Structure formats: structure tokens, C-alpha cells
Amino acid sequence: VALHAERSNTNTNDNTNTNINNIRDKNNNVKQSLSFPDQVKGIMASTFMAAALWASPPALFNTIDGSVSGNNNNINNNNIMMNDIRTTIVADAKEMASGSGSRVNKDPESLLRYGLPIPKDKEVRKFQVSVEEIRQDIASKRKAAAIDGTKKVKNTLKAKSSDFSAMCRDKGECTAILSSMGELLDPLDAALKDAQSSFNGSDQERAALDKAYAGQDKLQKLLTQLEEQMVPEGYVTPVPDEYSDLPQLRGGRAIVEFVLNKPDNAPFDVEGVNYPEARMVMVIDGFTAPVTGGNFVDLVQKGFYTNMPIQRSDGFVVQTGDPEGPADGYVGTPSKSIGKGKHGERLIPSEIFVKGDKGPFYETTIEDEGRGGQATVLPFSSYGAMGWAREEYDANSGSSQFFWLLFDSDLTPAGKNVLDGRYPCFGYVVEGADFLRDIKEEDIIVSAKVIDGLDKLVQPTAVSE
Asked: Is the pTM here over 0.90, yes or no?
């Protein structure tokens, strides 16, 4: 079972070129899209087949939170190769895809935290699990478990703070972060106990849980800052020299904001609440996808996506990036290694980063490498996961079209959704993902801008013959 991107017919009334092996976009107006073989009747059937093909043992871990690491300002040109860097506690080359177990981590910020290249990270990952489990317990009203989790975090801070600070680039900053985390725990504990003593379903319980959730959210954001400080000074994901003539996001992450309007200025309806515009904030990961992420940030900065319509919205993905005219993507100076598309599109290589590897591999898929089912650093397991579209049989045909995955753990289980390892996942929506539920074809991206991390964008340099 394979998902792929292809060119489709722009004439909604002309079906002569319809490929019976693919499910078409309902308006048939997107030049590149993800599609299924004809023998698979719908997404559910495709998932069942993919699950059978991708069956794998349960993964040990898959949970994360992340924001932008903006502290690697002094990036040198030498790739820092560190044998002990692992992106998760269980970052083993033979670890299987994350969705094969009963629990799938859907939290984009959690996934991004686990994607940080932290050496010797076992203890901080255990700490991360403890912090994140408090949120899960609050959400499911397991108040006693959340209180126990708060106590566990407090004990870890008492025992491990000096060790955690020693892992940081700036020990003083991490000491302050850890102190701030400790200050949040007593109010969090009090809010949880207030909820515990309130009647189930009462306004008092709801208010106390909301207060606890807000406190835990602050705790997780501080955890992100702490872990970002643990990325080694000057760390840059290794990228082969032949791709230096393409934009790259080097040594960190960027934050991008999109604002969308409907063409008739109608509101966006999110669970019965109307909003005049849709605002989404995305973290683009240069640690995991430096070439794909750099290409995207470069196009955002150029204004390529501004005033572009959404070109596909079918309940599986929301997709855009196809400019007007014959070209399927951005027309610009091509890379010598990949070349250009038939209409002069700047093409970028497929970029897949498997857990346990020191860097991504390029120009092939995980199946081409004989590693089908292994876990990628950033999985397609979050609502709003961002992937790069391409043609069906050419892994290196992507240019500017990308999609947001409307992840559903039943329809597209992580590791079994025929996306992980076949398409680069280069970031996540961390704010406003719910807007994707009502973003439709022809809605307009009225604003697309880089709001942080632009200093990580490295523009192309010439590659010698």
C-alpha cells in the first residue's frame, strides 16, 4: 500500500486522464496530492492493509513537547558528530514505528521535545515522562494520579537539578529554569487537591482542573526551555555537501505563522464557535529536516505562500503550495544534485531521519533502504503534522507543495499510516490546529511569515562541479 503525490487534471469536468488507481481530490484541482490504489476502498481499508504490512512490536516510548530552540547562535561550519546523541530514551536503530503499540503520542510539543538531539538523555527523558503524565491525568480526571505525579516531579527536581544543570550550555540559565519549575509545583498540587475535594462535574471542580491544567502547561513550557538548553553548543545536523546549494535550516528550529481567511469572509466554525480568521503557529524542525525545513522557511520568507489558496481539503489532509501556471512548484535556481522539474521547479531531495541514526538519509524512502516499519524522529502522529508532497514514483520531486495531516489514530495509526518514512515530516502545528477542521479549498492564506528562528536559515552556496 502506498500513498503518493501526483499531478491531477485541473479541469473539473474532464475526467479523461483520471487515474483509477487514485482517489482524486473532489474538485480535481490540485496538481500534487496524496492518493490510494483503487483496490483500497477508502482510507479505512487502506489503513487496515497498511497495518497488516507494517505490523511491528510495540515501541517503548513516543511522547514529546517542543518549541523553538533559539539558543544556538554561534553555529560553526563543522558538523559535530556525537556518537552518544540519541533523540529518545530508546533511540535504537531497530526500534519499530511508534504507532505499533496501544498508546500513540499525539502531542506535537511533546514530539518536538523528543526530537531534540540531547546526548545521554536517559534521566531527562524519564523526567519528561513524569511531567507529561500529569497533563494526561488532569485531562482524564485522574486527580490522585496527578497529585502523585506532581510529588514525583518535585522529588526529581530535588535529586537531579544539579545534574540537569550540568547538561546545559548555560548552567545558570538552567538553574533558573529548574527553580521556576519548582515554584509551580505547590500551586499545581493545591489546584489538584481542590479538584479532588470538589463534587464531580461541579463548577468548582472544572475551575480547579482548569487552573491545574494552566499550571501544568507552564511547567511543560519550562521543560522545553530546559531541554533546548541541553542541545550541545554548535550542534548542526549533518547534511551532505551536495545539498549546500539548497536553503537549509541549520542548528535549530523556526516558528512560522499562517493566517487564513475565507473568500467570502465567512467565519471559521470550530466546534460551534465562530472565528473571523484562522491563525496557526507551526514549529519547523531544522534538527530533523534541515533541507525540507529550510526550503519551506525560505519560501515563507519570500512570500511564496502569501495569498495562495488551499488546494485540497478532503478529511485526510489539507494541502497547498501549487502556484498558478503550468509549474507544479516554486520556480527557482535548482540544485545540481537534484536538478529541476519539467517547468523549472526547484526540487528538493527526500529527507528521512530514522531514530538512532546520526542524521537523515536522502533521495530514498525508508522502504528503499530496507528499513520499513522503523520509527522516524518526527512521526506523522499528531493532528497538523506537516509533510512534503511529491509525485508517486519519484521521491525527489517535491518542490513547494506540502500538507497538514488530519491525524486520526483509528484511520491513520502512527507507524502504520504509510506516511512515516515515505514523506518527510518537517514540523507540527502547535497552536490553532483545530482550525484545520474547517479550512476548505479556496480559503486564502492572507499572511505567512517567519516569527522566530530566521537566523537559522542558511541560504545556498555554489557547489563545485
From this structure: no
